[in-house]
Every structure is written in C-alpha cells, then in structure tokens.
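Predict the 3D structure for this chain.
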Amino acid sequence: RRKVEDLTFRIEEQTISSGDLEAASVSEKAKISDLEKESKEYFEQIEELTQNWTLLRIRSRLWKMRVWKEEHRLALLPSKCRRKITRSPNWRGKSPTSRRRRQ
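Done. Predicted structure below.
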C-alpha cells in the first residue's frame, strides 16, 4: 500500500511538473516571438538609417563639388571682376564689407 501511495504521489508530481514546464514553454515561446519581432523592426530601422546616411553623404559630396566648381570659376575670373562679384549684395560669401554691415 505504501508503494502504491508513493507511486501515485510521484505520478502527481510529474503531471504538475510537466504542466508547469508546458506553461513556461508557452511563455518562453511568446517572449522569443516578441524579441524576434522587435529585432526585425530594429534591423529595418538600421537599414533605413543606413540608406539615409548614404544619401546624405552623396548630397554632401555633390554640394562640395558645386562649391569647388564655383570657387574655381571665381578664381579664374580677372581680379577686377572678382572684387565686383564678392562685394555685390547678392553674394553670400564673407567679405569685409558684409561683416561691417552686420555689426
């Protein structure tokens, strides 16, 4: 009789343990699923930011090339013309006259 009670107790323990494990397993699977979803969203954000960064780099290089071309074009002009251009009110560069106006 004692052996039967011991075996019954062990069987009950096993069923309780397996039920707990199944519940924990379901909980862990849900956590894994959430983490996978979150990870996917982060990778998508990283991809988008990388593309934006690449576009900004390209735009920056294009802008630098435009500035260089304008500086080069300006440098090729005779000095009299350069003075007129740099002192005109539409020119956005820094000249001594524009600094005085601001102050």
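Residues 98-103 have pLDDT under 50 and may be disordered.
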